Amino acid sequence: xxxxxxxxxxxxxxxxxxxxxxxxxxxxxxxxxxxxxxxxxxxxxxxxxxxxxxxxxxxxxxxxxxxxxxxxxxxxxxxxxxxxxxxxxxxxxxxxxxxxxxxxxxxxxxxxxxxxxxxxxxxxxxxxxxxxxxxxxxxxxxxxxxxxxxxxxxxxxxxxxxxxxxxxxxxxxxx
Length: 175
Prior knowledge:
Elements: H1 8-19, E1 27-32, E2 38-43, E3 46-48, E4 53-59, H2 63-70, E5 73-80, E6 85-96, H3 101-109, H4 112-118, E7 128-142, E8 151-158, E9 161-167
């Protein structure tokens, strides 16, 4: 069975990294504005257990939401410093904006600081929404504690599942 968010051999690692409450790390995502300009933002990507997918929350009135509605795809980079692994991805996105249990689940796991910063409310704001990330490419760079021995693997989604190719860390050529 094809995984929605990652190749089966990466699933456990990706779930651990994007569910980590002890050592959470931000993710940078790139979008394209309505004017066609690149934009980079920091978001908190999480593994959404009920959905079996990766996603992040946002406000439906934000420029980020408008950019994603205009061009529903992103590129992202997440570095897990205590694991010495960089995750780069390219993905299509899907939107969760209608009232459903997933919105409540995400709201309930959003930190009080974020709730107060963006919405200044205790209950879920009506403009609160989720962006589901549907990757079609992963570029995993395992640095390790000895940077000279790093490894890179590129995974691509295809109709049969996922393909993997080890590549040079320097020039991306196949090994």
